[in-house]
Design brief:
single chain, mainly alpha, 11 helices
């Protein structure tokens, strides 16, 4: 019996036709690989077209140039940016408070700074212009004291640097001399003045000797410590370069010890100023700042006493500032003082 196709064959044919239609139709795009897409073996299926995802650090934003529309903020120019201005401001405020308190109290023993400055000008700085406005009292007292101070300080500085280098270069010399140096430094300088009075008698030689002998120890000890702290590696390099002793001393040891040397010089300078005044307070002195101070105390001239004290403070400040300037010129601003 040959009949038409039955329903089953039609269904099967329809099924094949549908499969053929599906085969001829364009394939659907593959789904994006995700964490839930797995193959038959249980391993994650990774598409070759999609690279593996890796945690990446976001790039740092590039610095942007300031816009031309917004001008840059100007630098701060307050009082904190000018330490010198701040120091002078503190000094002016302190002098102003002193002036106000002295005038309000009206005490004879503490005169206002204005009267002290006028008296000091009349006493020492009211001379003729050809003498740099110095009076005879300034020439006899102030310049004489400064000459003794300079002589004693130069002797102390020269002897201290020379002996400090000699002691610091030798380990055995430093070990043997260190107790003696520490003992001599611990003796109060004014206690040695009677000894120098016996040795040199009264006068300028005794004053210069007392200043030099008492001011030499800070320079000597600091110079010896600075020489001993020279970098051994630099000494080894100097030995490799075959530098002689003088070249090592001039180009290596002294530049390395200069910061400590200047520290000792500043201590020695302040000590020399104190010893200058103290040596001129002794009997037998004919001139000097200390002699003027003693005479003013005898006459109860309080304005002169205060003028001498202010003059000593100004001299100490100027001398220390000058020494610091020399130190900055030799060492530079970048190195510690």
């Amino acid at each position: 019996m040959s009949g038409g196709p039955g329903p089953e064959s039609g269904a099967r044919g329809g099924g094949r036709a549908s499969e053929g239609d599906r085969a001829g139709a364009p394939a659907d795009p593959a789904p994006a690989p995700g964490p839930a897409a797995h193959g038959t073996s249980g391993s994650p299926a990774v598409s070759p077209a999609a690279p593996a995802l890796r945690p990446t650090t976001p790039p740092a934003p590039a610095p942007q140039a300031p816009s031309q529309d917004t001008p840059a903020s100007p630098p701060r120019r307050g009082v904190a940016a000018h330490p010198a201005l701040l120091r002078w401001l503190v000094l002016v405020v302190a002098v102003g408070v002193w002036e106000w308190a002295a005038r309000a109290r009206g005490s004879v023993y503490v005169p206002p700074p204005g009267r002290i400055v006028r008296h000091a000008r009349d006493l020492w700085f009211s001379g003729p212009p050809r003498h740099a406005f110095l009076t005879p009292a300034a020439v006899d007292d102030v310049l004489a004291s400064l000459g003794r101070l300079a002589a004693g300080f130069v002797l102390a500085a020269g002897a201290g640097v020379a002996l400090g280098v000699a002691v610091g270069r030798s380990r055995w010399a430093y070990a043997l001399c260190n107790p003696v140096l520490q003992f001599a430094r611990a003796v109060p300088p004014p206690a040695l003045v009677p000894v120098f009075v016996v040795v040199f008698s009264f006068g300028t030689p005794m004053q210069i000797a007392s200043i030099a002998f008492s001011a030499v120890w800070p320079v000597l000890i600091n110079t010896a410590a600075g020489v001993r702290n020279t970098d051994p590696l630099r000494l080894d390099v100097a030995a490799v370069l075959r530098l002689n002793s003088a070249e090592r001393l001039w180009f290596l040891v002294l530049p390395s010890a200069l910061p400590r040397v200047f520290a000792g010089l500043r201590l020695s300078l302040s000590l020399s100023l104190i010893l200058m005044v103290f040596s001129e307070l002794l009997p037998g002195t004919a001139n000097g700042i200390g002699f003027t101070l003693t005479e003013a105390q005898t006459r109860s001239d309080l304005l002169t006493v205060w003028s001498v004290l202010v003059l000593l403070g100004v001299l100490g400040y100027l001398l220390n500032t000058g020494l610091l300037t020399v130190e900055r010129l030799l060492l530079g601003r970048g190195r510690p003082t």
